[in-house]
């Protein structure tokens, strides 16, 4: 548990990266809207350097949990600590030095429609580093847009001029604006075609590996869970009922988990992942034959 780690609760200097084991610790969280209790005694720890997938049925409170962690959701009970600092009940200026260490891609991107992509990325830079020159701010924004896999000319485009996939990447560029250590992604591949979704997954994994990010990733996308998540947290019954790797979760005897991971869509995602692995070894006849067999559409389908 994080409290035993001497680095866990150390106060960070602005130039220092978090070195504790758990950048996010949630203990005994309770949230509600009026009479409707969303979370009750929920615990969660996110490990440094992992991509943690967060899944659960619609309305189980995945987005509300993310909002509670970043301090946008009032909390009835419990505590949220990010980089060892308590977020619950803290005034915004008390968590300065923490808020600029995370980036958030909200569902739908949440870009300002009247600003260009570049200007959108500049917003957090200007907010947290107003002393930077306009030239340097533009340059950083341009770099983040390129890092997110957008072409150079996207910098001067408005969100309405971009495809859905490009808008997600623009939202990601803004989330990366401050060189975060922690990235929150709320359903980043929703609405993308499978090729666009796979490309976004690859980008997330590459960024995690090259920038050393910890990623809190809400998703319904089984391919994403199989392909890039180190562990997955399952929300049900107002709590996180399990956190583990996908293969370990699949062994659990919970009805929702079984239906989700071992149902037809879960099995299809697993087959797709197996095919990807086998395609890397097509020089081996056994792999080539297996790909040929598995790639056939099921009987009765065109
Ligand atoms: N601002 C709000 N006011 C009242 N109820 C809310 C508000 N935001 C969320 N809720 C309720 O909280 C519950 C959890 O919502 P949340 O958006 O976290 O679900 P989710 O697990 O992210 O769902 P989905 O997978 O459909 O996006 C839902 O019942 C929702 O109606």
From TrEMBL:
<protein>
    <submittedName>
        <fullName>ATP-binding cassette domain-containing protein</fullName>
    </submittedName>
</protein>
<feature type="domain" description="ABC transporter">
    <location>
        <begin position="24"/>
        <end position="262"/>
    </location>
</feature>
<dbReference type="InterPro" id="IPR017871">
    <property type="entry name" value="ABC_transporter-like_CS"/>
</dbReference>
<dbReference type="InterPro" id="IPR003593">
    <property type="entry name" value="AAA+_ATPase"/>
</dbReference>
<dbReference type="InterPro" id="IPR003439">
    <property type="entry name" value="ABC_transporter-like_ATP-bd"/>
</dbReference>
<keyword id="KW-0813">Transport</keyword>
<dbReference type="InterPro" id="IPR027417">
    <property type="entry name" value="P-loop_NTPase"/>
</dbReference>
<keyword id="KW-0067">ATP-binding</keyword>
<dbReference type="GO" id="GO:0016887">
    <property type="term" value="F:ATP hydrolysis activity"/>
</dbReference>
<dbReference type="Pfam" id="PF00005">
    <property type="entry name" value="ABC_tran"/>
</dbReference>
<dbReference type="GO" id="GO:0005524">
    <property type="term" value="F:ATP binding"/>
</dbReference>
<keyword id="KW-0547">Nucleotide-binding</keyword>
